[in-house]
Amino acid sequence: MLTVYWVHGKDAAPIGMKSSAISAMVRERGLRFEAPDLRATDEPDGRLKIFLEVLAQQQQEQREPPVVVGSSLGGYVAAAAALQYEFRSLLLLCPALHLSGCSVRDYSGLSCPTTLIHGWQDMLLPPEDSFHFAQEHKATLHVVDANHQLSGQVEFVCAVLGRILDGLE
User: Fold this and answer.
1) What is the Rg, in whole angstroms, of the alpha carbon atoms belonging to the chain?
2) Tens digit of pLDDT for each residue in 54-90?
3) Count H helices, E strands: the chain?
4) Half-sphere exposure in the Cβ direction for 38 (13 Å, CA)
5) b/e for 101-125, b at 16 or more Cβ within 10 A?
6) How many CA atoms lie within 13 A of 158 on its CB side?
7) Which of 32, 33, 97, 148 would give a disulfide with 3, using CB separation of 3.0 to 4.6 Å?
8) Cα–Cα distance measured from residue 4 to residue 23, given in angstroms and rounded to the nearest whole number
């Protein structure tokens, strides 16, 4: 069974508004949803280490490669993890790809289909990083009228993820 992982941001909990909506949509499709808690550390690479341990456990259970959705700092964690593990697809929401404390700076080994959604009004992580990332990695980029939290865009996020999942069937 396909698993969709939610990788939350720095100041977020594993389950919040976006992840609850994504969880409901994923489970309605009969898929597995996982939202590991990465709050044991605020350090980007510490969170990456925790998520890599989760993925290693999945690999031992011989599940198919997952779809991973990462938000903000979780976008960094998801993209960096995609360099080490096979993912069916990657969806990054206002990703923090180049913060201080992030050891991964080069994503040239990224091989899975990748989609980004970023808010025009994001004052925490301006959308220019996502522009450059999408161009460099031939990723799909959606820029929406929203802030860093993508307020008011939960339905759009779910619709984009739904199209990604439809393309995997």
Assistant:
1) 14
2) 999 988 887 789 999 999 999 999 999 999 999 999 9
3) 5, 6
4) 33
5) ebebeebeebebbbbbbbbeebeeb
6) 17
7) 32
8) 8
